[in-house]
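The protein record quoted in full:
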Amino acid sequence: MKLPFLMALLMAVAVLLPPTLAAQNSVLDMAEAEERALARDAGLDELRARVEATRDSAVAQSALPDPEITVGLQNLPVDSFNLNEDRMSSLMIGARQRFPAGESRTLSRERGMRAAEALEAEVSAREREVLRQVRRAWVAWAYTRQQLMLAREESADFEALVEVTRSRYRSGLGSQRDLSRSRLELAAVEERILTLESEQAAARAELARWVGSLASGTEPGQADLPMPKSLTVMNERLLEHPSLQAEAHRLKAAETEVDLARQSYRPEWMMEGSYGHRRASDMDGGRASDMASLMVGFSLPLFTRDRQDRVLSASRSEAQAVHYRRMDQIHVLQGELESEYARYQRRLELADLYESSLLAEAAENLELEFSAYRADRGDFRDVIRARVDELDYRLRLLNVQQQIDESRIELDYLAGESR
């Protein structure tokens, strides 16, 4: 009669408890961690500000130079400084406007816009890098937590094994050597727990660096990693990597710089107009007429060997350098993609080996050795060895699964779809 009453009491208490006590720990999904990291990354804000600055600079560079205004005295006698004495003396005001050579303004704007597009691609590249880093930190945090939970469970089992050997030793069925060995292995598991706690703390700190401080008790939630496509598809997508797109825009900007350098072989133009007010009298006694002037000037790019030719040659070399840099970057990324894809395939095979045979065989071997030991037909060292092997295989499987997720992260960074 007491058991049903006790169960009813526990159920009533569970209903009356506030919801926060039923779920004390908060959960951080990988997708939420990604959004938080992207929202607080100062590097992205810097790049976006540089994009705006480069666009504004491109517009400014394509504008006409400011007109120049001149005001002064012309042909003033130095012996009297009297404007009324000489008919050539005048008060003058003028305006001058310069016009850059050829299509320099249009090309300057195009060059600046190409540079802004390269920075926009860098924003996308930075987003990919942030996602890669926060995903790796999240995965390390999640898997070290699983490994730590497993090690703690195994520690409890080793404690039970120590009790078994102690009981057998007290009853005369075991030896002091077996008891000492069981304590040693328990200490080794506790040492592993301390190592895993240190690794988990480091992974948690790395994740907090990207997403902000994590509340005490926060646990990893769901992970949403895209599955890799075939190597052929990923090689095609690799060319769309934002860093390569940034280099492509820089190459176009460099080619525009070559066109801009060619404009220096064309003359720059200048137009100037002035108006002079005269206060002296003419020969008939009337006030001398005011004077107006209009002039057009242009430069003569005759000596081009050490200026225009050098600038054009330098701009061509710079464009070639950008081209070679982009080709080298393509080769590097292709090598990384192929290497990571090969590692990903081998890790999948290794995980399948653990799950299909090694774990089951290790568990079966442990059961056989422990049964033989309890029946006084086996050696305690074989039991300990089998128990340690079973724990090692389970931890190795978690490590391989973590490596698989890390490969998926790297492959998505290299050849994933842009956000």
About this structure: The domain at 110-265+306-415 is CATH 1.20.1600.10 (Outer membrane efflux proteins (OEP)). The chain has ten helices and six strands. The chain has a mean pLDDT of 85.
